[in-house]
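Lay summary

Proteins are chains of building blocks that fold into shapes. Our project writes down both the chain and a compact code for its shape. Here are two examples, one after the other.
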Amino acid sequence: MVADIAIHRDDDKNPHAHVMLTMCPFLEDGSWGAKLKKEYILDEDGESLYTASGAKKSRKIDMNDWNKREKIQEWRQAWALYANQHLALAGVAVEITEKSHAALGLEQEGRSSDRVEINRQVKARNDKVVSLLEVDEKLTNLENHQLILQALFPAEKKELGQLSKVLKMYVKPESLADKRRMLYLWDVKLQAQVDLGLFNESSYKGYQAQEEAFQLAEELFNREADRLTVKYYPTLDTSQWTSYEKRELVNETARLGRTLNELEIKETLLQAREEEVVEQVQSILKQPIPTVIEAQERIQAVQTRAATFSNSKGYRFSRKHLWTVYFLLKKTTMKVC
């Protein structure tokens, strides 16, 4: 049996875990076994019985007892046993039981209904918070990119809508970094399928379509950032700027509702350069790493890339961003080792 475990510690008052189990077993050779088997129903003479439509009568037989009520009760008893052992080892003077209140002869005294009501109120509050956060995020997206979106030509707006459908997402510059990583992981999966002789043509065509749409969306935003930079800052030399830096300048212009002065441009540029490096490091480190050797090679590549980027721009990173990059690199090394 495969057990997929997720431990949630986001709420100090409610640490808990979710365990999802497979109902199909694994065989000794690693292949999937059958969850059910069909058994034909015979009469007293061993002859097949038939339905009114002429089909042979049959029934489904479970290949294991994992979904039986008795087995679940057995697991609950085992859970209580092991949980109590570890509670004792941890010095916690508490014991749990798998038995219900009814089995123990206890009355609920309204505690269950109270808990249900509390959970209902918490869920209602969380739903409102999530809803407000979603609205706030949408407003922020619109505000940050109103210049770019408003300046798009009609044909470009139509193209952006079509690209959003292909990429299955609201296309904006910030979301492209995550999409780039998702496409990378998709490509890795396709390569693994080819190696295993499991090539899926439909999946490959889907990947190709999204990869092409991604490139077109990135080119569209880059062109628009170039146009807007020239429009609002015609005398500014941006020949050495990256597309990311130009987009951040446009976003800051939209946020303030005016063109930036020289000092504000320098501050925005410096912040954009630091954030771009950190974003690139994060995107690289989020990619799967098969071996420790490759992890070390990747870390070296990131360090070299960051140093080259810094030297070419002629500035130093702030202490905060240097520590961020160091922490990310260190974290990945520990994870692999």
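And here is the second example, written the same way.
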Amino acid sequence: MPVPIRLGGQDRKVATMLDSPLYVNMTRWGALYGGPGGNWGPGRVDPAADQVENQLGLGPGGLPRLLPASNTSDDLDYILPATRVNLGLPNPLFAAAVGSQHGGAGNNGRVVLDDLRGAMNSVWPVLANPCYAIIDSDAAHHVSLLLAELAFANVAAGRAKIVINFDAHTDYSVAAMNAASLRCDNWGSFVIRPVGAWVPIADAYVMIGNKAGGGQAPNPAWSNTTCRLRAPNTQSQNLAGATVRLQMQSLVNLLNANIAHLNGNAPWAGYDVYVTVDRDFQQQSFTDYGDGAYTTVAAWQAVHDCMDELNNNVPNVAFAGFDICGLPTYAGASVAAGALAPQQRFNLALQDIQTFENEIAAL
């Protein structure tokens, strides 16, 4: 039987709390999708989504899915023709294939923000609270921006909104941003900075697990955790502390010290958190972006420490949503793990998904 839990002040059972997690198909290059070529369609994606559904103990049809990406992986076939016309969506939607042997040939899932936002919101105008999503490609990590926006939609005024990104990369750009170029490697900028008509969705963007020099972990481990606050004070700030737990306390202290420009000098009424985990911050992820700096066990522990510390040692915290991003790809490789068959690679991802679900259920 599912374990009763408490999230956002409401008791739910695990399967109910997860509200049938969303499976977001943004690539045709998944390790279990069959690789390039052939006729593309749900028959390629469904078997992988079925395995995720089974892992989470959901009943048949319990996993709502955004699928499939089109045969050329630069469009989303589930967008209704009427929606395309009404929103003036381009065809194709993406600048280049999402994912592929070369990480999208450097495009990193580049898309016009308003186009992707309109397309996704036409399918999911609202999300469960809290929401939980599995995004198949970390070349589409910018989907997390739009999921977090929806997850924060009903957060009351005066509560701090926090996006925490476990990732081998910062996914942040210090350059001037362009809403016509939302990518997996710059979406964090949109979290806290206005870009054209886009309004920041959070008060803090936290980056944990980034690679240091030479692609290695920093010394000591986890010591390069940083935070950027909502504009105009977006400079990178190190979160002090030898552990992820201490860094979460530093995060709260930083938010409290900046209430003047973030909350009209009023104390925060509470904190709402969205957590996204890009599997590429750990070794053996088999994504297009190579090995991360941390072992699987160390990565799991860091996610646990982050969520447990906020949940149990910071008052008035609620979790608005979660996602895990970056399932193994057709061309993904791992120096740490060596050669593994596609199903073996996918099994590693299923372990991550189950571990993450357990962490959510324990809150």
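What can we say about the second shape? The longest strand covers residues 270-278.
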